[in-house]
Amino acid sequence: MASLSLRQVTVRFPTASEPALDEVDLEVPHGHFTVVCGPERSGKSTLLRVAGGQEEASSGSVWIGGEDVTARSAQDRGAVLVMQHYALYPHLSVQENMAFALRVAGVAETELQERVRYAAEVLGLTEALDLHPDQITGPQRQQVALARAMVRRPTVLLMDDPLVALSPELVDATAELIGTLARHLDVTTLMACTDPAPVRAAADTLWTLDHGRLHPGTNDHREDRP
Ligand SMILES: Nc1ncnc2c1ncn2[C@@H]1O[C@H](COP(=O)(O)OP(=O)(O)OP(=O)(O)O)[C@@H](O)[C@H]1O
């Protein structure tokens, strides 16, 4: 069981007058889809980066699966961060982009192909597998970035506004898909976004972040879940 907890996390950047995160307490239960929404510069990326180990907290702690991972490197946390400005390898096909991290990790070829095929199927990328990033649309590239994280089967998936580049008709469907994946693949998922509207129905729990302070949102379906 890999819940994610942030306890009293504060991040101060030396050049800033106020903390980017201010005593944040956040609990994402195992397999739940939690969304943190907030305006620009409210601290969303910093929150995800601290959870993933890309940024160090000034104080407080990060827990994954009941273990204190504050001192662990990003690689040793079992969390995968999908950044807002992700980059695909332009010289590799969609399929190879998705498989890249698995090859590096030495995952067996049949297992690798199976994971890529499954992720492509659920994300509607099957037809694009042999194409290169410059041959697919912006929204498709965003889906590939999500698929690339999914195939790694992280215990915790952190996503920085993956809906921002999508067309309006894809936004709701993708938010719903992320929620479904979290529950079906048992991936504890924390996502940041600026607009709460498209995620309200899909998220288990919604929080708002304002000047580095976390406030409860209006979604809490946890009682409905087994
Ligand atoms: N490396 C850094 N050094 C100094 N200040 C930083 C650094 N990273 C973030 N900040 C500051 O911390 C605050 C929160 O930034 P953060 O990027 O976490 O917000 P955000 O909500 O993700 O914004 P956006 O929606 O624009 O990406 C901002 O005031 C930002 O300028």
Describe what you observe in this structure.
- Keywords: ATP-binding, Nucleotide-binding.
- With 226 residues, the protein is an alpha/beta fold.
- It folds into 2 domains: 1-78 and 156-226, Rossmann fold (3-Layer(aba) Sandwich), CATH 3.40.50.300; 86-153, no CATH class.
- Helix content is 28%, strand content 26%.
- It has 5 helices and 10 strands, in the order E-E-E-H-E-E-E-H-H-H-E-H-E-E-E.
- The protein has helices at residues 44-52, 94-104, 109-122, 138-150, 168-184, and strands at residues 4-11, 21-28, 33-37, 59-64, 67-68, 79-82, 156-160, 188-193, 205-210, 213-220.
- Strands 6-7-8-3-9-10 form a 6-stranded mixed β-sheet, with helices on both faces. Strands 2-1-4-5 form a 4-stranded antiparallel β-sheet.
- It is globular and about 50 Å long.
- The protein starts with a strand and ends in a 6-residue tail after the last strand.
- Mean pLDDT is 89; it is low at 220-226.
- It binds adenosine-5'-triphosphate.
